[in-house]
Design a protein that fits this description.
This protein has 403 residues and is mainly alpha-helical. The chain has helices at 8-22, 39-51, 61-70, 75-88, 92-102, 115-127, 129-138, 144-158, 167-192, 219-232, 236-249, 251-261, 270-279, 284-289, 294-297, 300-303, 309-328, 335-341, 347-357, 364-376, 388-400, and strands at 32-35, 56-59. Strand 1 (32-35), helix 2 (39-51) and strand 2 form a beta-alpha-beta unit. The longest helix has 26 residues, at 167-192.
Length: 403
């Protein structure tokens, strides 16, 4: 059992005892670790990189998305949404009124520990803003705390700031910015937590700080600017102010992303981004538009320690055949269908691709294994021998043990 109070030597000894002595993990076959968890676990995982020299470590980018999303919180939106959840909690009458005013839209749920749940709440409010206002205005309750929350929401919506800007507009802008940024973050998370190939994680580009600028796709912000401008017939300066404020509210997530995955050597996850860049060489759609040269192949051992000089020589030998195969394959072809079809002709590239496929940028890849096992075996293990997946897993494990 690890704890934060343990020093490096103690953590290293405990980890190596479990991994090498108990589980007998072969150092020559281990290609990667998911560097995810609490601080004690991260210390332990860092020791694995030292002892397993050909393995690479990847941070969980799903958590990066979650932490980036947390930077979008503001005190005003937090208070406003908190009051709304107070109104809806443990009240059938409130939920019925919400359904009546919104035309059957499900009331927003309180966010869980996953940031995507906060995005769902924000997106619901953005899409039902006027209906939400009608709900708040009609809400009544004998419960003192609910009545106070409803009054606080009405005050926030009616307040006019000293600069003559309605507080409702500021609230609405903060919610729509959070919803628009949330679209990019949740799409990136869904990509990461799927079964996709590591090289395809370069689709994270919408998350990169350079993309969260004035040209980022913000449909809800644009809709709010149009609605506000048309209703009040405001001039262009007001429109520019709204867009400027939208970028201001993005500052937190942009800075957080830049510090971790920005295009600079000081980025905290610079090594993982380099790993992504190397892994994309195994994606034939990338090679289709960028014919490989020998210098490209030499990137792989820099980011993938298990790619030895012998493997590099074999990759270079097959490079021209890989370029031809990629050029002749339709871009819509499934990635693994391509590698299966070319596994004999491009055996060296195929073997590296299989290893890279095991290195995933999300801890959900490993957590899915536990979900499968839990679905196969209930708490009393009544279905253990009835499920072929579980039976096969148990059989393979038992056959690998020495008694």
């Amino acid at each position: 059992m690890l704890s934060n109070s343990m020093d490096f030597a103690a953590i290293n000894g405990e980890v190596m005892k479990v991994v090498v002595d108990d589980y007998r993990l072969d150092r020559q076959k281990c290609v990667g670790f998911m560097l995810d968890g609490c601080s004690a676990n991260l210390k332990a995982l860092d020791t694995l990189k030292m002892n397993f020299r050909i393995a690479t470590g990847v941070r969980c980018f799903s958590h990066l998305c979650k932490n980036s999303g947390n930077e979008m919180n503001s005190d005003d939106t937090h208070k406003f949404a908190g009051h709304l959840h107070t109104l809806l909690s443990h009240s059938h009458n409130a939920k019925d009124l919400w359904l009546q005013e919104t035309g059957g839209v499900a009331p927003p749920k309180p966010p869980s520990h996953r940031w995507s749940s906060r995005f769902e709440r924000n997106d619901c409010l953005v899409r039902s803003w006027q209906q939400m206002k009608s709900f708040v205005n009609k809400f009544t309750s004998a419960d003192e705390s609910k009545s106070k929350s409803a009054a606080a929401m009405r005050d926030m919506l009616a307040h006019v700031r000293p600069d003559n800007i309605h507080q409702e507009l500021v609230l609405q802008l903060e919610f729509v910015v959070a919803a628009d940024v949330g679209i990019h973050l949740t799409r990136a998370t869904h990509l990461l937590e799927g079964d996709g190939f590591l090289g395809l994680a370069l689709s994270l580009n919408p998350l990169l700080p350079g993309q969260l600028e004035d040209k980022v796709n913000t449909p809800n912000v644009n809709a709010l600017v149009r609605e506000y401008a048309n209703s009040l017939n405001v001039d262009e300066n007001v429109k520019l102010w709204l867009k400027k404020m939208a970028l201001f509210h993005m500052h937190g997530v942009r800075y957080h992303a830049y510090a971790r995955i920005g295009d600079h050597p000081g980025a905290k996850e610079h090594a993982t981004i380099r790993l992504f860049e190397g892994a994309r060489l195994l994606n034939f759609t990338f090679v289709k538009g960028h014919q490989l040269e020998e210098s490209d192949v030499h990137i792989l051992p820099e980011v993938l320690p298990f790619v030895t000089p012998t493997v590099v020589a074999a990759l270079v030998e097959e490079m021209d055949a890989y370029n031809v195969a990629a050029a002749e394959t339709d871009a819509g072809c499934d990635l693994w269908a391509f590698w299966h079809d070319n596994r004999l002709k491009l055996s060296a590239w195929y073997n590296v691709a299989k290893d890279v496929a095991l290195i995933q940028p999300s801890s959900a890849f490993m957590e899915r294994v536990f979900s499968v096992l839990r679905a196969c075996v209930d708490d009393r293990q009544e279905h253990c021998l009835l499920d072929r997946i579980e039976a096969a897993a148990l059989l393979k494990y038992n056959m690998s043990q020495e008694y």
